[in-house]
């Protein structure tokens, strides 16, 4: 199952997930000024970052908004980036945060688990309930696809709704309970489910509460670096085992900006990955 492959990657290469939230202003000057098409420029930037990091990381997360913002050219670069990561034998998570009624969710599932935008995992929004999530199960049944459901997001305003009490519990715990239950039919050899949770590293106390409740859940963990999360915040969460992948986007792909612009952006991304890995793993010894 794809979740077992992802967990193997974590065991072999550590839990770093490189976030390809590529923006035009992150490109080095030589690419910005080149005569290549926009699609080529964005793809070349991503390809060089992937080539410089794939032996050190568990997976990649590609944020679709950054590519949609460039229009058709951006989506072509998005499609090529997903394909390139999968050709390299690495796992790719498409951060698309979809959530809609059953008939529409069927089309989102087809769009992102097949064809030009095929990814290994996608992120989904649970706000509309089970029938907005169940259309993805057809793909989970193959064992080759998985989803990460938003549970406790990393942004400050996540408290606006996620902390509201339902049956005397914060909503994020209610969601976690349901996600854990849905995931019980999709557990791999690793003991983790193809239905994982998105929980931000910016709330480590709440994270621990969720983790302790959801034994089979594998986590996609945003919030490291640019949003303030640190390796120390993962100490308790990863105490028994590394139960997730830790995403950093800006902290890795724009490391060269303002420091050493130019051809070395990929080497700087690699250095940032090594630094992040050390920062996480030293708390696990
Ligand atoms: O709760 C969430 C869910 C998703 N994200 C996404 O992760 C990256 C974070 O980027 P950084 O530059 O490392 O801050 C981005 O794609 C977000 O959309 C999140 O931050 N929090």
Automatic annotation (TrEMBL):
UniProt EC number: 4.1.1.23
Keyword line: Decarboxylase, Lyase, Pyrimidine biosynthesis
Annotated active site: 97 (proton donor)
Annotated SUPFAM superfamilies: Ribulose-phoshate binding barrel
Catalyses which reaction(s): orotidine 5'-phosphate + H(+) = UMP + CO2
UniProt cross-references to InterPro entries, sorted A to Z: Aldolase_TIM (IPR013785), OMPdecase_type-2 (IPR011995), OMPdeCOase_dom (IPR001754), RibuloseP-bd_barrel (IPR011060)
Top-level taxon in the UniProt lineage: Bacteria
GO biological process, one term: 'de novo' pyrimidine nucleobase biosynthetic process
Domain Orotidine 5'-phosphate decarboxylase: 15-265
Family in the record: Belongs to the OMP decarboxylase family. Type 2 subfamily.
Protein name per UniProt: Orotidine 5'-phosphate decarboxylase
Organism of this sequence: Caloranaerobacter azorensis DSM 13643
Lineage of the species this protein comes from: Bacteria, Bacillati, Bacillota, Tissierellia, Tissierellales
């Amino acid at each position: 199952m794809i979740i077992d492959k992802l967990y193997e990657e974590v065991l072999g290469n550590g839990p770093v997930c490189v976030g390809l939230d590529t923006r035009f202003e992150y490109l080095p000057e030589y690419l910005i000024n080149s005569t290549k098409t926009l699609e080529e420029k964005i793809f070349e930037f991503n390809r060089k970052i992937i080539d410089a990091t794939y032996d050190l990381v568990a997976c990649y997360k590609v944020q679709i908004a950054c590519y949609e913002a460039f229009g058709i050219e951006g989506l072509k670069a998005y499609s090529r980036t997903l394909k390139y990561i999968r050709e390299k034998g690495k796992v790719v998570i498409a951060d698309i945060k979809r959530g809609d009624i059953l008939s529409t969710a069927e089309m989102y599932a087809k769009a992102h688990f097949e064809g030009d935008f095929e990814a290994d995992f996608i992120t989904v929004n649970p706000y509309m309930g089970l029938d907005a999530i169940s259309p993805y199960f057809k793909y989970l049944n193959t064992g080759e696809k998985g989803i990460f459901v938003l549970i406790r997001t990393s942004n400050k305003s996540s408290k606006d709704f996620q902390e509201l009490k339902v049956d005397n519990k914060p909503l994020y715990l209610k969601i976690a309970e349901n996600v854990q239950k849905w995931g019980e039919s999709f557990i791999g050899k690793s003991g983790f489910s193809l239905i994982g949770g998105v929980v931000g590293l910016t709330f480590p106390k709440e994270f621990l509460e969720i983790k302790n409740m959801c034994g089979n859940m594998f986590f996609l963990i945003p919030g490291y670096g640019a949003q303030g999360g640190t390796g120390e915040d993962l100490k308790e969460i990863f105490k028994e085992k590394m139960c997730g992948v830790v995403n950093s986007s800006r902290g890795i792909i724009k490391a060269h900006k303002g420091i050493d612009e130019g051809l070395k952006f990929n080497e700087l991304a690699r250095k940032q990955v090594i630094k992040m890995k050390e920062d996480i793993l030293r708390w696990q010894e």
